[in-house]
Design a protein that fits this description.
Distance between the termini: 13 Å
Helix content: over 70%
Strand content: under 5%
Pfam families: DUF1798
Structural class: mainly alpha
Number of strands: 0
CATH superfamily: YppE-like
InterPro entries: YppE-like, YppE-like_sf
Organism: Neobacillus thermocopriae
Radius of gyration: 15 Å
Protein name: DUF1798 family protein
CATH class: Mainly Alpha
Shape: elongated
CATH architecture: Up-down Bundle
CATH topology: Four Helix Bundle (Hemerythrin (Met), subunit A)
Amino acid sequence: MLEELYNKTEKLIMYQKIYMENFYEVKETRDKKDFYEIIKPFVDEVKAVNDEWNLLMKKWLSEASPKTIHFKQIDTISSYIEQLSIQSFFSETSKKRFLDMYRTVEYFLLEVKKELEKMKRDA
């Protein structure tokens, strides 16, 4: 389970880079992407990984109880991940709000990754 959770966390971190690329590209070009060909498939892919990650996180938290990560954060972060995946495609998205959510998700995912790496070392 730890390996699977680690891989899902890594994948979500990779998506973070894509959100940022999309966000700045759309802000610069004001280009509207095709919803059914580009946006929806990407959002669906992120949602699938995010949903699996959410379940694994809750299972892991109930077993491991890391000090810096709490149950309440998981659903909030999952919600932010979904919002970022969608909002990164729209030029109307507030830059401040997007970046605040982005940083929150990034920080949390990196903390999870660090905790998982620590558990792997200690095992």
